[in-house]
Amino acid sequence: MKRAISNDFFAFLLLLLFLYLFFFYEMHKITFTLPKEWAIVNTMFLGIILEAIPFILIGVFVSAFIQTFISEDTLRRLIPKNPYVAIVFAAFFGIVFPVCECAIIPIVRRLIRKGMPPAVGMTFLMSAPILNPVVFASTYYAFQAKNQMAFARMGLAFLVAVLVGMILYRMFKQKNPLKTKISSTHEHVHTENKWKATLYHASDEFFDTGKYLLIGAFLASLVQTFLNRNVLLQIGTDELVSPFIMMGFAYVLSLCSEADAFVAASFGNTFSAGAVLAFLIYGPMLDLKNTLMLFAYFRKRFVIGFILVLTCVVYFVVLLYQTLF
Amino acid sequence: MSGNLFLRGVILLGFALLMFKFIVTGQIQQLIAPKMLPFLYFAMITLFMLSIIQIWRSDNKHMVCCGCGHHKSNARFQSFVVYVIFVFPVLAGFTFSNHVLDSSVAAKRGIQLGGMAGSGTASDNEEEFFSQLFGNQIEEVPMEKGEKVDKNQLGKALLAADKVVFTRENYLAALEIVHNNAENFIGKEVELTGFVYREPDFAKEKAVIARFGISCCVADASVYGMLVSGKHLKSIVNDEWVKVIGVIKQTNYKGNVFPCIEIKEINKIQQPNEPYIYEDLL
């Protein structure tokens, strides 16, 4: 009881502080400033999280909606019986159900918990942030003079998602990849009203997912500020090395899949098409921002397996593309 | 556990207030692109609603939160860390977020001369534009604020105009047109606004006049600009905002031929309220 009161007191002070800052604090009148580089880190960080929060909220709501309104049985009936068919189906599903990489993790976690086979869920997780109309449009626009890039991105992403999904299926079969610990937190909100339950789930999950997003966004903003991109060019524009470098670069930058094409385009003159495609495919499927979320929700072995398989598959698919075209 | 629910409510309210303040003061433009604003409105309203619900729920003792069984002393410390993680960005946002990207960022990202690099070669569109070019004349520049940039139209208008004026709205498209069709623009008068940026190997009389372009949020900002040269530049340091009037000629840079502005007149200006340009979709 005492603890609850001290918490309330702390929260109340925080409320007053927020209100003070909101109404009375004027930034431009304050002469004290952060060191320049940290001010840039701060700007990047706020940019990334303000950009991501709406989509996390969408993901969290869809997840909460699935939790309250879609039963295990319904889900089982919707997914094809044959796992390989289901994986291909999941790779296509992003086209009708566009979600970006921030929103997708809570949704997939919920689907797997509801009984979706893990490999199918992960296929959806990989394909949805790329194979959707919004990302196609922005890629097409960013690479106006090379519009084969947008098509290649879609095609290769589909191929990668299906291949990785099938390998994961062979590796992990139906074993539950989710951590069991966390699941106890959300499963028993007792309430009469389903809509109210959805809202409660949503705000709990916002905090659950949000903390990893915030840490990841902070790390990404450090990279954004301190990494000198010319270094990438010095490491190598070699055919074999460059896809790998661009994948690592996509990983640490943690950009939205809608925006990354514009950054990729800036490397269009210095890196090969294959390397740029590696950047465009790997980044939305896996980055610094969402690795932490994956580790929080899935078993360590599963996440490491996923990362290794994905990295190899993207690399080889890109090499294949380079030799063919 | 009512304390935690109340605290969560307050934190959600903090995020909503921060977004609201950014939107009202217009500062949001320095963090995310205008096309993302509807999503931000949605987030602000949702967070505000969720916060009210949390605070109301915290007062409702029989609706106990499900997480409460797990809070041992260790978990208590952990949850403290989690709340610090959430409070930090709100405080940082309210206090130190008015920094505008400058040439130190440009140096790390590399600069792009001539609009989007992906469109470095002439596209079909432009060939078509040249075939039509000398057929019909266009008298006025059709650029209104917020109007979609039509490159063909803009190209004709720029060529027909006495003076090529780069505005915030046509900036990217105009850069691209001038760079892709440089030979047609040589000798033309031009007016360009931006901040001064120099590569380490630049002489004092040489610089790039650049602006940051954002497609979704500042994290994806790229630097777009045009080479300028002239004695007037000597007195101007990096990051200074200037308005340049000059004539387009060609120059060699890193083994390639680029259009370059020979400066006739240069004026220092205040950093504009809207320093960035936005890569609008289609």
From TrEMBL, chain A:
GO terms for cellular component: plasma membrane. Its main location: membrane. The keyword Transmembrane helix applies. Keywords: Cell membrane, Membrane, Transmembrane, Transmembrane helix. Pfam families: ArsP_1. InterPro entries: DUF318, UPF0718. The keyword Membrane applies. The chain crosses the membrane at residues 7-25, 45-70, 82-108, 120-143, 150-172, 209-227, 239-255, 261-282, 302-324. It is found in: Cell membrane. It is a multi-pass membrane protein. Belongs to the UPF0718 family. This is Permease. It comes from Paranoxybacillus vitaminiphilus.
From TrEMBL, chain B:
The keyword Metal-binding does not apply. Keywords: Membrane, Transmembrane, Transmembrane helix. The keyword Transmembrane helix applies. It comes from the Bacteria. InterPro entries: DUF1980 (IPR015402), DUF1980_C (IPR048447), DUF1980_N (IPR048493), UPF0703_membrane_permease (IPR052955). Residues 7-112, 149-279 form the DUF1980 domain. The chain crosses the membrane at residues 6-24, 36-56, 80-101. This is Putative repeat protein (TIGR03943 family). It comes from Paranoxybacillus vitaminiphilus. The lineage of its organism: Bacteria, Bacillati, Bacillota, Bacilli, Bacillales.
